[in-house]
Design brief:
This protein is 77% helix and 0% strand. It is built from 13 helices and no strands.
């Protein structure tokens, strides 16, 4: 009994140390970006990993002066918020229809939606580009919002589908007895119950859309509609790789919104992932 307790404590300590090491590997890039953002141009090459010998705070001011952060941030927020609204609204309604209603092709619809998880964006980028040109969406925000919403729809539907299946039927029966129609039942009764899943989807969609690069680089050719990811690339190209201090400052500035969103939304993600699975 004593040996078993000791072995359990040793195993628990080893697991803790292993998890701490994994956490450090994830945090190190952020630490490195923050570290070099306060270094001068020459010190980055002489002392790449150590703390700055001379703290240079002007890198942030110079980066903001050369990097059109407000415009790119506004575009990224427009894309992220619009994608969240469209995806969560349509995805929750479709997931509710598939999980709670009886109709002929609902299993086919679920399989069709699931196919969206395995289709890479690189395969369909040419048809999307042609459709954008023919529909007159080239150079507009909606030309990126619609593809973002389409690619985010599959995971949203599947997660909410699992949550809807776990709800008791008595919720809808009680709402029907009280005189609610299908829309009132959905928006007033069902959606508030799955709030953790919706909050999780909002955080995940925001982070995926905010950090997306490939579609934005191909479809957002004009500077006025470029998000932060593409704007950051242009900033790198414009100053080159001879001033890593400003590059680190620009990366920290660009990363702040996602860090803030995840800091406030990580508890909702944990609640949703423990309450249900992607497929049930």
């Amino acid at each position: 009994m004593v040996d078993g307790t000791v072995k359990h404590k040793i195993f628990k300590a080893m697991v803790t140390i292993f998890m701490i090491m994994i956490g450090i590997t994830f945090l190190f890039p952020l630490f490195w970006m923050l570290n070099i953002s306060f270094k001068s141009r020459s010190e980055v090459y002489v002392n790449p990993f150590g703390l700055p010998k001379e703290w240079v705070f002007n890198n942030y001011g110079d980066a903001l002066e050369k990097f059109n952060f407000p415009r790119y941030l506004a575009n990224s927020v427009i894309y992220s918020v619009s994608t969240i609204i469209i995806t969560v609204l349509l995805g929750s309604m479709l997931a509710y229809c598939i999980s709670r209603m009886k109709w002929k092709y609902k299993n086919f619809a679920l399989s069709y939606i699931s196919m969206g998880l395995i289709v890479p964006v690189q395969v369909v980028i040419v048809p999307i580009l042609i459709m954008n040109n023919k529909l007159g969406l080239k150079g507009t925000h909606i030309g990126l919002i619609l593809p973002y919403s389409a690619f985010a729809l599959s995971s949203c539907v599947l997660m909410l589908y699992a949550f809807f299946r776990g709800l008791p039927v008595e919720l809808e029966e009680a709402a029907c007895i009280d005189g609610c129609n299908i829309f009132q039942t959905f928006f007033r009764i069902v959606l508030p119950v799955i709030r953790p899943a919706i909050a999780t989807q909002c955080v995940l969609i925001f982070m995926n859309t905010y950090n997306e690069f490939f579609l934005a680089f191909i479809l957002g050719a004009e500077d006025k509609i470029r998000p932060l990811t593409v704007g950051l690339l242009n900033f790198f190209v414009s100053i080159g790789v001879n001033h890593w201090g400003q590059i680190g400052a620009a990366m920290i500035i660009t990363s702040l919104p996602t860090i803030i969103v995840y800091t406030f939304g990580n508890e909702q993600i944990e609640n949703a992932l423990t309450a249900g699975a992607i497929l049930k």
